[in-house]
Amino acid sequence: MDCVAGNNSAVLERPTDKKTIVRDSLGVGLAVGALGLSFGALAVVAGFSVAQACALSLLMFSGASQFAIIGVAGAGASPLAGAATATMLGARNGLYGLHLSPLLEVKGLRKLLAAHLVLDESAAMSMGRKSTGEARLGFYATGISVFVLWNIATLIGALATKSLPDPAVLGLDVAAPAAFLALLAPRMNSREPWIAALAAVGVALAAVPLLPAGVPVLVAAIPALLLGLLLREPVERQEVSA
Amino acid sequence: MWTAILLGSLGCYALKLAGLSVPKTWLENPKVRRMSALLPVALLAALVAIQTFGDKDSLTVDTRTVGLAVALGAILLRLPFLAVVALAAAVTAGLRLMMG
């Protein structure tokens, strides 16, 4: 979408255009791909075959769920427990769908394909955009770049297993939170997102020692849901402040 | 193992599809709209916190905290997205190298 001269919101927001969005999406794909290397390696170490590791990345395609299933199976739990844990962690993607559904407005086959691309990264890259078109571009470009690079990386990681360096040495474990923080920043433009974010951080960190890995993030959805339910209507607030 | 992989994948996909299939009339409700706007903010903020401070089932302050602080500084300086990510990773890696 073109910037309209004299449009205040266009001046205040960070300048973005389609090229920037695609470039950033590829960058996210590369950072996530690096994590995919370690997923492939860890899956093989946990006793999965190369084909099974690749099947997880192709079919499950959800980082948290994939690490959970190899963790649970690696610890010797039943396959059903592994599947249940992975599904529970996938609930986060269902919640992103709630945000993405009105943006994407997809139907039929397109919806079946778009659903597969719903991820932390693609949802994040659709946020804070100036137009629906840019939001959709952020979602699809990121979803596709992460899908391609995550799967290639899983294969390489699984094949290379033991010769692979620890991604932590390269600081890559900080790439994801740094990227999410950068994507959150333009959304923190009023009181509501600040309250939601701070409450979520508090709840999630408090839950870390109490709940199994992956669940604290889900629990962090509760304050956002409550806020959405309980806060006064925006119309009312405008009248109060006027 | 294949059973777990296929069942888990099916479950994950069903949840993604369910999220996208919420009836349109629901989304016209202002409360649902606000929830759907706040949810990704909350989930991503929680992810940032846990990926930075979480260490299995405890919390810790380590080199990742410095990396995230660098990212925050870069964001406040309005550096481009990729520079934010690269700086955070590079500073974290450098610190780890120095600390052995």
Question: Can you tell me about this structure?
Answer:
The complex is a heterodimer of chains A (242) and B (100). Chain A contains 14 helices and no strands. Chain A is mainly α and 242 residues long. Chain A has two domains: 15-187, no CATH class; 189-242, no CATH class. The longest helix of chain A is centred in the middle third of the chain and has 29 residues, at 132-160. Chain A is globular and about 50 Å long. The two termini of chain A are 32 Å apart. In chain B, strands 1-2 form a two-stranded antiparallel sheet. The model of chain B has no long low-confidence stretch (mean pLDDT 91). Chain B is mainly alpha-helical and 100 residues long. In chain B, a hairpin with a 2-residue loop joins strand 1 (54-55) and strand 2 (58-59). Chain B has one domain (28-99).
How far apart, in Å, are the first and last alpha carbons of chain A? 32 Å
What is the CA–CA distance across the termini of chain B? 39 Å
The chain-level mean pLDDT of chain B equals 91
Please describe the biggest sheet of chain A, giving its number of strands, its sense, and whether it closes into a barrel. Answer: none
DSSP strand content of chain B = under 5%
- Please state the overall shape of chain B, judged from the principal axes of the Cα atoms: extended
Radius of gyration of chain A: 19 Å
The total tally of domains of chain A equals: 2
Number-wise, the strands of chain A total: 0
H and E string of chain A: HHHHHHHHHHHHHH
Q: What percent of the residues of chain A sit in helical stretches (DSSP H or I)?
A: over 70%
Fraction in beta strands of chain A: under 5%
Order of strands across the main sheet of chain B = 1-2
Q: Please, how many helices of chain B?
A: 5
Structural category of chain A? mainly alpha
Q: Uncertain regions of chain B: pLDDT < 50 for 5+ in a row?
A: none
> What structural class results from the helix and strand content of chain B?
mainly alpha
Mean model confidence by pLDDT of chain A: 83
Order of helices and strands of chain B: HHHEEHH
